[in-house]
Design brief:
This protein has 468 residues and is an alpha/beta fold. It has 14 helices and 20 strands. The N and C termini lie far apart (67 Å). The chain binds zinc ion (ZN).
Length: 468
């Protein structure tokens, strides 16, 4: 007898109990609302986004002292004639502002027990804490289940979570008690912590996956790739899944192809952050992120102004759901562009293209031009003896390239690697190859950083500056 449907049903029931205990019950209508938004037409979604934008602006002005003061200072007051075009006159919100003015950004209309404290998962600088109102938290859970539903992942589906943020996971070595067992059963998940992955752990993870038989692999693409390589090299029994959800790190096309081949599942890339939940998700066409336009209003900012469709720039978010602490025009330090065309899948949601690493994750050439981190991360795609690479720029005219290589990596390969990097960074930059046994993750976020830049953007030439 096939136990899978019974198992799935029992796990879904256990999940309801767990949600009630976590005060997260009530997300199901939000999943429904999200799925219903996928059936609306583009015009009514856009109208709806304008209404939501007006509502959050009124709310921010009336109940958040920070916005009231900042907007009064520039003579702005929300009105019924406000449209998203008018948003451009408002100042940006930065992480520094959130750190300095947190208490006055919080809406006066919320009691402290209606707010949850959360932290950003950024890879650079210090962590920022912020508040999320409880209704918004439940809403996001529901909407995310809606997005996952489109990938065939539903509550009760067994997933292996490959995750590295220690705050999100039970501490290793914690005794397995009934409570923790129930939590894992109800979440239908096996957690594989990936902040450190040595051979012994990889072997253990493989054994656990064989017993658990996950239908979904979910987490950091770098870590899942690492696990896949290990399984392949050791000739271990394959782990086959239906779906792979990649999140928290940039997914390269090389990784996508590899993951599909090794684990047999369809790879879906998600763009989620702690501050704004899931901003975007891939449909089955895999040509960019569909933006959840009922949750976030996305602007692309280039040289301080709003970019045209197709033009890349910094992704800037106005959150339409978190009334507890409104985020208006918040800079994400992520790069992307809005697609001028709708997706061929027929979805009415706008499409975000070319998410290309963090703003800090780029390299500055001595002449002031930028090399996007994403391009560097893919540069060694055809050198099979390079396992992992990391680019660190400490000085303007010098780039350290840390490589984890196999025995097939020769001095000739090294020369070829340098040549390929030079093509991107230009002849003025010294390229130092450093072979290392492994590449460290960021100890705080658990993320693997492909590109780390420690220098500031050099002054650009006058002709470039005039482009504003
Ligand atoms: Zn689509």
């Amino acid at each position: 007898m096939n136990m899978r449907p019974v198992d799935r049903m029992l796990r879904a029931v256990a999940r309801d109990i767990l949600d009630r205990r976590d005060r997260l019950s009530g997300w199901k209508p939000h999943r429904k609302a999200f799925l219903a938004s996928m059936r609306k037409d583009r015009e009514s979604l856009a109208r709806d986004a304008e209404d939501r934008l007006r509502r959050i602006l009124y709310h921010a002005y009336e109940t958040s002292p920070y916005y009231r003061d900042a907007w009064n200072a520039i003579g702005f007051r929300p009105s019924s004639s406000f449209t998203s075009k008018d948003l451009q006159q408002l100042p940006f919100l930065t992480k520094d502002i959130v750190r300095e003015h947190k208490s006055t950004l919080v809406s006066e209309r919320f009691r402290s027990d209606e707010l949850d404290l959360s932290y950003t998962g950024g890879t650079t600088g210090t962590q920022t804490s912020f508040y999320l109102d409880h209704a918004c938290a439940i809403n996001r859970v529901g909407r995310q289940w809606g997005m996952l539903d489109l990938c065939g992942y539903r509550p009760g589906t067994r997933r292996a979570l490959v995750w590295g943020v220690s705050d999100d996971l039970a501490q290793p070595g914690t005794r397995i008690n009934l409570k923790r067992w129930f939590r894992e059963y109800a979440s239908s998940q096996e957690v594989l912590c990936c902040s450190v992955m040595n051979e012994e752990m990889l072997m253990d993870y493989h054994g656990r996956l064989l017993r658990f038989r996950p239908e979904v692999l979910y987490g950091y693409p770098y870590a899942i790739t690492h696990l896949g390589r290990f399984i392949q090299e050791q000739g271990l029994e394959p782990i086959k899944v239906k779906t792979i959800v990649s999140t928290a790190e940039r997914l390269t096309e090389v990784q996508r192809g590899f993951l599909q081949k090794v684990f047999g599942g369809e790879v879906f890339n998600f763009y989620c952050t702690r501050e704004y939940g899931c901003i975007g998700f891939e449909c089955r066409r895999h040509v960019g992120f569909h933006i959840d336009s009922e949750s976030v209003f996305v602007e692309i900012i280039r040289d301080g102004r709003r970019a045209d469709p197709g033009e890349p720039g910094e992704i800037t978010i106005t959150d339409l759901q978190n009334y507890g602490m409104p985020f208006i025009r918040s800079r994400t330090a992520d790069f992307g562009s809005l697609s001028p065309q709708p997706c061929e899948c027929g979805s009415p949601l706008p499409v975000l293209n070319g998410l290309d690493g963090r703003a800090t994750d780029c390299i500055w050439r001595p002449d002031g031009s930028m090399v996007a981190g994403g391009t560097l991360a893919d540069v060694f795609g055809d050198i099979s003896s390079i396992r992992f690479s990391q680019f660190v720029q400490e000085k303007l005219n010098e780039l350290d390239v840390f490589l984890v290589v196999t025995s097939g990596f020769s001095n000739e390969t090294e020369k070829e690697a340098i040549r390929q990097v030079r093509e991107l960074v230009g002849p003025e930059m010294a390229v130092n190859i450093r072979r290392v046994p492994e590449i460290a993750r960021n100890p705080r976020s658990g993320k693997y950083q492909e590109v780390i830049c420690k220098v500031n953007q050099p002054q650009r030439s006058t002709s470039t500056q005039r482009r504003v």
